[in-house]
Design brief:
single chain; 555 residues; alpha+beta; FAD/NAD(P)-binding domain; Flavocytochrome C3, Chain A, domain 1; 2 domains; 8-stranded mixed beta sheet; 19 helices; 33% helix; KsdD_DH; FAD/NAD-bd_sf; oxidoreductase activity, acting on the CH-CH group of donors; flavoprotein; FAD-dep_OxRdtase_2_FAD-bd
């Protein structure tokens, strides 16, 4: 093995996802020399954020006001803290980060992004609707702003800034450099060392070799860990899985590439950084197997509108308020208590045409490509959007039939379908349909559908007119088998409001910073137990900006 390849810089950034790119661009803007390392080939520049839907949480935005949405910092704070449920001594810094992030989302966040050329889809989405009391979990109003260009559009200005600095000789990008240790001197972190992996021409997201061909060392005045979470590492997800959510699933699909492996959290812990809230995590329950996978066990999340009937594996309808899009972790906890790893959506063709969107930049070519004609056709035209139709035609989890008996038989024919009680499915759907004939109802989901359609955005692109699912004129009938899909770590490296990593004594570790998912999106867990959505890439933006500015000022 050749001698370690040496590098030096003012700042070392570990990880080139959105948080890392933002931090690096801020440091370069402050006149610092930067080295970025990542274990993947350069095709993956932008990390997980490139694959994202690009949803952003704003408070009292122009887009909200145009739709008559009355939002405020006070209402958003009520929702955030009611959702987070902070209840630990370890939540001291996460609480402060939450307050700071709310100020950012209400203040300069949108202006800052607009100045960088980032635009937003005019219709504001309503994610995590809650359905409890005013002080409980969920968003009281729509706050989910979709980036025009989705994830790639959000990554683009920061990638451009980094590449311009690289061309100017002020920044170095080192692909296939995997950090295995943070180096220290007199208690301060002075850089990192690790393995150089063999070159790879793999496409973005495709799993790559871990064959070691050399070693490296980087010396830096400050080091920022921006390496992401654990969602691609099922073993670690199960190891840290919280008892309050029930037993960990035996089978899951994966919502992030394999390189999201949590390895840097272990490295940071070994260097003295304090990991907190590791048992807080965010996994979806509307995952489907990708018919055209990129990474191992590749799953896609359905971003559901509120109309589909949600059944557990046996055919029983989920309780109030566990409707599609209302309470992600509440639904996960309920389904884990059933003893099965899957559940079902049952819906009509009218519902799938109006309400089904798939998460991910690659599943939304109209928004990602900024293609207005395709946008109008896919969102407002007849038939399901192209990517959704592809899953209906080719997806292993979709059953499409003309009548209920055939639908139930198709559901029972899928793996695990033998536990489905067909009579119960029929009972649930027929009972639900009887409630449609009157404008008043005791069915809380139907009442919520009618309420949702009072919001112009839902009526326009997100919520179908309530109708009988079993009426053949609304068909065909569709069932979708749903899996747990791994996604986000809500805990991580504890940081103060300057993104400085804290040690076991609560004091900053000299020279060490953390940002993005590696830091629980700020402080070691800015979301608490639950996220309000649009706050993951937003948390990367905010914590990356804080880390880059603070580290640059310190060296």
């Amino acid at each position: 093995m050749p001698a370690p390849s040496p590098h030096s810089a003012d700042l070392l950034v570990i990880g080139w996802g959105l948080a890392g790119l933002v931090a690096a661009s801020e440091a370069v803007a402050a006149g610092k020399r930067v080295v970025i390392v990542d274990q993947e080939p350069r095709t993956n520049l932008g990390g997980q954020a490139w694959w994202s839907f690009g949803g952003l949480f704003f408070i009292d935005s122009p887009e909200q006001r145009r739709f008559g949405i009355k939002d405020s910092l006070e209402l958003a704070r009520q929702d955030w803290f009611g959702n987070a449920g902070f209840d630990r001594e370890d939540d001291a810094w996460p609480r402060r980060w939450a307050e700071a992030y709310l100020q950012f989302a209400h203040g300069e966040k949108r202006t800052w992004l607009r100045a960088k050329g980032v635009g937003f889809f005019p219709v504001v989405g309503w994610a995590e609707r809650g359905g409890y009391t005013a002080a409980g979990p969920g968003n009281s109003v729509p706050r989910f702003h979709i980036t025009w260009g989705t994830g790639p559009g959000l990554v683009a200005p920061f990638q451009s800034a980094v590449e311009a600095a690289e061309a100017a000789g002020r920044l170095t990008i080192l692909p296939r450099h995997r950090v295995t240790a943070l180096t220290t001197s007199d208690g301060a972190v002075t850089g990192a060392s690790g393995d150089i992996l063999e070159p790879s021409g793999a496409a973005r997201g495709v799993a790559t070799s871990r064959e070691v061909v050399g070693s490296f060392e980087v010396t830096a005045g400050a080091t920022i860990v921006a390496s992401g979470g654990i969602g691609g590492n099922h073993d670690l997800v199960r190891q840290w899985w919280p008892e309050r959510l029930g037993p960990a699933p035996s089978t899951m699909v994966t919502g992030v590439p394999a390189y999201v492996d949590g390895s840097m959290q272990i490295v940071a812990d070994s260097a003295g950084a304090r990991l907190i809230n590791r048992d807080r995590m965010w996994h979806y329950v509307e995952g489907i197997q990708n018919w055209d996978p990129v990474w191992p066990d590749h799953g896609i999340r359905i971003l559901p509108g509120p109309s589909s009937v949600w059944l557990d594996a046996t055919g029983h309808r989920l309780p109030v308020p566990l409707f599609p899009g209302f309470d992600t972790l509440g639904t996960l906890a309920h389904l884990r208590a059933t003893g099965y790893d899957h559940s079902w959506f049952v819906l009509s063709q009218k519902i799938i045409e109006k309400e089904f969107t798939l998460s991910g930049s690659e599943q939304n070519p109209d928004l990602t490509g900024k293609d207005l004609p395709l946008l109008v056709k896919s969102r407002l035209g007849k038939g399901a959007a192209g990517p959704v139709q592809a899953f209906m035609d080719k997806g292993a989890d979709f059953v499409v039939r003309d009548d209920l008996d055939e639908l139930i038989a198709g559901m029972q024919a899928l793996p695990g379908g033998d536990v489905l009680d067909g009579d119960r499915v029929r009972f649930e759907l027929e009972a639900r349909d009887r409630e449609i004939d009157n404008e008043f109802t005791k069915d809380a989901q139907i009442a919520m559908l009618r309420s949702a359609r009072s919001y112009r955005g839902d009526r326009l692109v997100r919520t179908a007119v309530p109708h009988r699912i079993l009426d053949p004129s609304n068909g065909p009938l569709i069932a979708v088998k749903l899996h747990v899909l791994t996604r986000k770590s809500l805990g991580g490296i504890e940081t103060d409001l300057q993104s400085r990593a804290l040690g076991a004594d609560g004091q900053p570790i000299a020279g060490l910073y953390a940002a993005g998912e590696a830091s629980g999106f700020g402080g070691g867990g800015v979301h608490g137990y639950r996220a309000l959505e649009g706050t993951f890439v937003g948390g990367c933006l905010f914590s990356g900006r804080v880390a880059g500015r603070a580290a640059a000022a310190a060296v």
